[in-house]
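User: I'm putting together notes for a lab meeting next week and I want to include a structural view of one of the chains we've been expressing. I don't have a solved structure, so I'd like a prediction I can at least talk through. The sequence is below, exactly as it appears in our construct file.
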Amino acid sequence: MSKKVQNHIARKPSDYVFDGLIYLFFGLFTLLCVFPFYYLFINTISDNDKVVSGLVNFYPIGLHVNNYIALKDVADLGSSVIVTVARTIIGTALMVIVSAWAGYMVTKQKMWKRSLWYRALVITMYFNAGLIPWYMNMLMLGLTDNFLAYILPGMIAPYNIILVKTYIESIPGSLEESAVIDGANTPTVFLKIILPLSVPILATISIFGAVGNWNSFQDSLLLMSNNPKLYTLQHRLYIYLNQSSNLSALVSGSGGLSTQAAQNMLSSKVIKYTVSMVTIIPILLVYPFMQRYFVKGIMLGAVKG
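Assistant: Thanks for the context. Below is the predicted structure for the 305-residue chain, given as structure tokens.
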């Protein structure tokens, strides 16, 4: 009987020490990344008096979920959640559709002025008119105090279109050629062949779009100044942070704490922590399910330039 020969490289004690140091380093690095979220979370489920006193650092004290329940009574928070969820779903979906179609079309040699449109798209990644021209443009288009301001500008995402284009170019051309021979037109090829094969890159840009829309702040701050009902969740959190800071400064300047001021400061700090956690949780829950698509899509989409 023939014996199986296994290649085995002898490891020295220094190799195990090196591996241990690597694991230790990345373990500490992971802890540094996770701890801020953990700290934020334990402060939202701990006794509010302990939180304000700064006694909650490593473990929760006086467990409860009343802070999350109380969010329903926070003024205008519900409308901000609805606006943010709506812009994230609608904006991401339209961005993915447009990026997929545009990325596919710029791979077609028969597209009219293909090189011109593609170069014009790439140029926008390097040149920006600036904040004031952008605001004036949005104003002239009637997109101030308008929900469409959250949707329309983000539909064209040059970087995502380039990723999709690069990924589609890695798909064997013979698949499309065989479909064309069978009588399929361009939209049919796109829907029946290209889209199913492009799931990894589409999932990748979906993550980009969802995170960008969920965390968006500047457009709400600048464009929705006259319509608080259209404030995003991040904008609402910014307002709570400012209120908390202003109240703290006011209390410090007065030389003492009144009962009402103390209660207001307590509410502001607790709301600040709780709303911050609420804005983080959706992304933390979604990303693990999309990670395998994200890694595959970003690697394949970046192979070719």
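A couple of points you could mention at the meeting. The two ends are 53 Å apart (CA to CA). DSSP finds 13 helices and no strands in the chain.

User: Perfect, that's what I needed.
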